[in-house]
Amino acid sequence: MTRLxxxxxxxxxxxxxxxxxxxxxxxxxEDALRVADAMFAxxxxxxxxxxxxxxxxxxxxxxxDVVDESLALVFRAPHxxxxxxxxxxxxxxxxxxxxxxxxRALEAGARPAKPGEFTLRAYVNGRLxxxxxxxxxxxxxxxxxxxxxxxxxxxxxxxxxxxxxIQSRVTxxxxxxxxxxxxxxxxxxxxxxxxxxxxxxxxxxALIASSRAGQLATRGARLALIGRPNAGKSxxxxxxxxxxxxxxxxxxxxxxxxxxxxLELAGVPITLVDTAGLRDTxxxxxxxxxxxxxxxxxxxxxxxxxxxxxSPREDAALDTPADRTLHVRTKAxxxxxxxxxxxxxxxxxxxxxxxxxxxxxxARLLGDAARGEAWLTTERQGDAARRALGHVQxxxxxxxxxxxxxxxxxLRALNDLTGRDxxxxxxxxxxxxxCVGK
Length: 438
Description:
By secondary structure, the protein is of the alpha/beta class. The chain has 2 domains: 2-129, Gyrase A, domain 2 (2-Layer Sandwich), CATH 3.30.1360; 130-419, P-loop containing nucleotide triphosphate hydrolases (Rossmann fold, 3-Layer(aba) Sandwich). It has helices at 32-39, 95-107, 117-124, 130-141, 145-155, 158-182, 194-219, 233-241, 284-298, 354-366, 379-397, 404-418, 424-431, and strands spanning 10-13, 22-28, 40-42, 53-60, 66-75, 86-92, 111-112, 221-227, 259-265, 268-274, 302-308, 325-330, 344-345. A 7-stranded mixed beta sheet has the order 3-4-5-6-2-1-7, covered by helices on one side. It has a 6-stranded mixed beta sheet with strand order 9-10-8-11-12-13, with helices on both faces. It is flat.
């Protein structure tokens, strides 16, 4: 890991940009205590302080002038976030103070930390596995309580524990199959092969089912409202939001450009996209809006296809993927002109049908994963779980003497999931998404 520069002492501002009551500058590495001694003046030097202690004093610049009053929190290796000696300076949170404290740490011998380098050191030093490191990033970026909860579960090792159980089952079968090769006449009993493999496959399927939900809870979902002019798209957007965000008029074609609004639904941060009405038109501006609506629907995580239930039904304006589309019959407060059990009746005026629509959106986005624990939250984790499942299923279909390779590959994929056996390129790809200071 020398290429990563882990032998250096690093420093960074670890609180969010902007002014605040308190700010933190973190220093980590084998020379962290020496750097801290050079810049901090108090009743005791950080280098002579046991781990887990606060010191009160002042950060001084190279000429001895006071930069700011400060608390210095000392951690001794390996009992720190990074597993190294760490000192955190807590000062007033103005950008001027924090930048000067950081500059002083760099003058004293530290170098600027790279994005995610503190957490990278925690991973390299065995304080976190790769799934826990990804949970740290998810926790930093969490926008909803669901995302926070899943990140916290991942950080506590709940995901690693689920994976470890699967690994133990696959390892048990691998050991039994390899023992059978020495005594082929005995074979492998079902309780030592089929039963644990079936349970491993079941657990992997449950993890994979959580993958999409985990990613949506972390990054958010885009939900596009499409339909013909006056289908009630803008009215429904306002009703879902609970306030008037989009202009509503009886004039067809009022919405020509798309409009976005944010809300949280079932623990998922959602971007609602109100689009132009879909119809043939000679108006160049409106036609551009229609093309844009089709493109937005194509890139959405979920599409609400709205049809006016109070007017004679027209052919669907857009052929949308069934697994990403909910069909909604709007204006349910008016006498119905048609009915279809496959559509959800909703009234933006009275609110009738909105709870059922919200539940349908939740079910489409999260599925059964909403009732599970420790979701997969990244595409990398989902890919590793799918590869593991493929190898487990292949092993179940093979005779004992041919299953060994598939079982070994399943274990490699599970190791990839938690980061036990990954390349530096994979590690780099994970940590480049972190902010500096974490």
